[in-house]
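User: Quick sanity check before I run a bigger batch. Here is a single chain. Can you write out its predicted 3D structure?
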Amino acid sequence: VQLVESGGGLVQPGGSLRLSCAASGFRFSNYYMTWYRQAPGKERELVAYISNNGDSTNYAHSVKDRYTISRDNAKNTVYLQMNSLKPEDTAVYYCYVGYALNDYWGQGTQVTVAS
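Assistant: Done. Predicted structure follows.
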């Protein structure tokens, strides 16, 4: 199983970014996918998850109405559209899948929101 995130970077408050996570090594369309984030000195927290066919999503209260999770099962990719970014959104963002009773994480992508 391999998860590779991309799309992070430095953005000003109020700006937008779209993260991508390319997955391989498992039948992507059969599994829920989740985005987590970890800010410096804080525990990793769940940001959003999406069902295997994309018809169900859920968000952390802190990002609801600003972030949108989506997926393209033909491309084995899950996305996180982040709008109205705030400095407190600064973190390393990770893609996650639970597969065959194991936890798999990507390497993470840094998102920094600062002026």
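The first strand starts at residue 2 and ends at 6.

User: Great, the batch can go ahead then.
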